[in-house]
Write a structure and sequence with these properties.
This protein is an alpha+beta fold. It is about 20% helix and about 30% strand. It has eight helices and 13 strands. The strands form four sheets. Strands 7, 8, 9, 10, 11, 12 and 13 form a seven-stranded antiparallel sheet that branches. A hairpin with a 4-residue loop joins strand 11 and strand 12. The longest helix has 13 residues. The protein is globular, with a radius of gyration of 18 Å. It starts with a strand and ends with a strand.
């Protein structure tokens, strides 16, 4: 019998839980979803990512509540309050200083990042090309980028303007092209980093707001310190809120995946 071992690294409830989740393909707990009247059996590693499979197993109501879409042969959830970030594929790099300590008594940096909501009726129904999804349904990455460009001084930027400027590079989102062509010459793309508190905090120290990738969503960190998700305040593109922290999502079982970094030119 063929065996699959998945290393799942997630933030569950409050605190970091690291574990090895070993399953046999035939013995994995069956999870089904209904899509347009059709019953789909989710199989980790075959038609759903291990991260999303763990999310479904950890929250029995999640599968029923989510809207499911098929992206690159994998089922992805459009959950209430969380949307799929559709982007140009890119491997994250490990930041050399990611293991540096970030004491809980570190200085709390707060950046005045303006907030946008992807569900603002002004642009929520705008279609992103070439995926065909609306900004409201799948524009969290686009909207987060618009916030950062606005923070850096792109005075005319909002999700609609950025979407129009990017054209067929809006969905999937081409991060570097967004800075080069659509930031009003205010931003440059630095890169994509694996998640670490040290990297997030170093960016805040440099007055660069981190665009943080969660499992299924993007948010902009606007301030924080230490190594607790509850210490890091976010602008949430889903509804434009500014009073949430990373813990809002990690307490629901969403993992911290990576960081997109833009710098002011």
């Amino acid at each position: 019998m063929r065996r699959f071992t998945f290393l799942l690294i997630g933030l569950l409830a409050i605190g970091v839980v690291v574990g090895v989740y070993s399953v046999q393909a035939q013995d994995a707990e069956p999870v089904t979803i209904e899509v347009n009247g059709e019953i789909i059996v989710l199989e980790p590693g075959k038609n759903i990512s291990p991260e999303n499979y763990a999310l479904v197993i950890g929250n029995p109501d999640f599968a029923a509540e989510a809207i499911w879409v098929l992206i690159n042969d994998f089922w992805e959830p459009l959950a209430p309050g969380v949307t799929i970030p559709i982007e140009n594929p890119e491997r994250p790099r490990r930041w050399p200083g990611e293991d540096l300590p970030v004491p809980d008594n570190s200085l709390n940096y707060v950046l005045p990042v303006p907030a946008f909501s992807q569900n603002d009726p002004t642009w929520s129904s705008d279609i992103m090309q070439t995926c065909g999804f609306t900004i409201g349904a799948a524009g969290c990455a686009l909207t987060s980028t618009a916030m950062v460009f606005k923070y850096y001084g792109a005075s005319n930027t909002n999700p609609r303007v950025l979407n129009t400027c990017l054209g067929d590079k809006a969905c999937p989102l081409y991060w570097a092209d967004a800075a080069t062509s659509c930031s009003e010459s205010e931003a440059t793309y630095v890169g994509y980093w694996s998640w670490s508190y040290a990297k997030a905090y170093s960016m805040l120290q440099a007055y660069r707001p981190p665009i943080v990738e969660l499992t299924g969503h993007y948010v902009v960190v606007t301030g924080g310190y230490g190594k607790l998700p509850s210490n890091y305040r976010i602008n949430d593109p889903f509804n434009g809120s500014t009073d949430r922290t990373l813990a809002y999502y990690t307490d629901l079982g969403y993992g911290l995946v990576g960081i997109r970094e833009y710098a002011n030119r």
